[in-house]
Amino acid sequence: MSELYVVGIGPGGYADMTLRAAQTLNACEVIVGYTVYVDLIKAHFPEKTFLTTPMRQEVERVRLALETAAAGKAVAMISSGDAGVYGMSGLCFELGKDYPEVSIHTVPGVSAVLSGAAILGAPLIHDFAVISLSDLLTPWETIEARLCAAAQADFCICLYNPSSRKRRDYLSRACDVILRHASPETVCGIAQNIGRDGEQTRVLTLAELRTTEADMFSTVFIGNSHTKVVDGKMVTPRGYKHE
Amino acid sequence: MSELYVVGIGPGGYADMTLRAAQTLNACEVIVGYTVYVDLIKAHFPEKTFLTTPMRQEVERVRLALETAAAGKAVAMISSGDAGVYGMSGLCFELGKDYPEVSIHTVPGVSAVLSGAAILGAPLIHDFAVISLSDLLTPWETIEARLCAAAQADFCICLYNPSSRKRRDYLSRACDVILRHASPETVCGIAQNIGRDGEQTRVLTLAELRTTEADMFSTVFIGNSHTKVVDGKMVTPRGYKHE
Predict the structure, then answer these.
(1) Which site among A93, A115, A133, A156 would you substitute to test the B interface, given the most B Cβ atoms closer than 10 Å to its Cβ?
(2) A206-212: long-range contacts (C-beta < 8 A, 24 or more apart)?
(3) Å from A233 to nearest chain B CA?
């Protein structure tokens, strides 16, 4: 049986992965990944063979990893954050059906929903919804329905892919949907370049978020009706009964 | 300025924490935590002072950590999973207002939503909602409204605290709410004792989940309408446009 490990490396560099992730990469011969993520960790694994593919070529990258594993090498495919959140682990299982001799394992990592929350304070202490604003593979109507449902039920909300060059106004449109049910004073936060050079955070109101541009390296957090600002941090209480 | 680090150690033992978490614990003099979590990692930090408090005494534990930091020691407070998901980091910021001389930092960890997903396959590849079934601090009406909204908008759902001795039927009641909008054939999964002795997973339908008991060491996953079983794994596709 050949082995393919799908490894989430967390938000930034080497220190942000788990010890298990580092051990797994050390135990594999070949590490496959998107060029940018490989560059974040390459120096720590000098004896490994690295195979990289450019952005958006997810199917080709997964096939490359599966073919290399099927040829008898222990392979790790790395993903930024966690491979299971808008990541590649699903595609590995789906395409892996064509390679019955390859056994697929996943090693979880710290996704931006957790690392972004950590630098903003404690926005996700209670129930939350994670929604991607990318309509590349999902109709906008589905995204809007989820934003609306999450706001109506007073979830904290974390937005992945808040904008891109082709979708400059999506964050503003998302805020408009949320504003149907949430106060313009709702506490929000933006976490940018988490764990990397240029890391920064901003805490602001939902009304302010509506007119703010967040770039593609940002993760956006929208509090629930109980979220507050404590010493500049975004903090959601643990429960609501005893307030 | 004194320092308090709130550190998520991930689901299981030493290997499940990030390198940054291990470095942080090594750099602190005192490690504070709930007895069970301290026992999971204690052997790896033989020279540290450990302070433990029993379950449910969260406010006392946070005050102990803040007092110790205020007295001039570098303190880490550890949390299972991630301290920012139903965890203690929010309480640290809230009570930290009384200790202006203590600077609070958070180190994220792999929460059960990510580690449970990893052992079940890839259930959270698309938008998801995380909901706790504990009504200790939240009215059941709020929990029910969130379950209903998440199911109606076809989110994947991850349930924390699916049951306890006093709430044996809560998982069944939650399934009844979700079944108002989701098919009884919806793919579900249970991850038990993640990263610890006795780790196991089960993939089943929503109808089966309704009559299954999940203990307090379980995390429950309910797929969206596109989630499928691939070689025994629970897999949600990345998008819906090109199916």
Answers:
(1) A93
(2) A206/A175, A206/A178, A206/A179, A206/A182, A207/A179, A209/A171, A209/A175, A210/A171, A210/A172, A210/A175, A210/A176, A210/A179, A211/A172, A212/A171
(3) 8
pLDDT one digit per residue (tens) for chain B, 243 residues = 899 999 999 998 899 999 999 999 999 999 999 988 899 899 999 999 999 887 778 889 999 999 999 999 999 999 999 999 999 999 999 999 999 999 999 999 999 999 999 999 999 999 999 999 998 889 999 999 999 999 999 999 999 999 877 888 999 999 999 999 999 999 999 999 999 999 999 999 999 999 998 988 999 999 999 999 999 999 999 875 543
Tokens of B55: 């379950």
Which H or E element spans position B21? Answer: helix B19-27
Which pTM was predicted? 0.96
Going by the DSSP 8-state scheme, the letter that residue A196 receives in this structure is S
Spell out which residues of chain A touch residue B111, defining contact as CB-CB under 8 Å: 114
- Maximal C-alpha separation, chain A: 60
**Contact (CB, 8 A) for A115 and B108:** yes
C-alpha B79/C-alpha B58 separation (Å) is 11
CB contact under 8 A, B148 and A153: yes
Q: Cα–Cα distance between B185 and B208 in angstroms, integer?
A: 9
Determine contact, residues B213/B163, Cβ cutoff 8 Å.
yes
ipTM of the prediction: 0.96
- The 8 Å CB, 24+ separation contacts for A135-138 are A135/A167, A135/A170, A136/B239, A136/B241, A137/B238, A137/B239, A137/B240, A137/B241, A137/B242, A138/B126, A138/B239, A138/B240, A138/B241
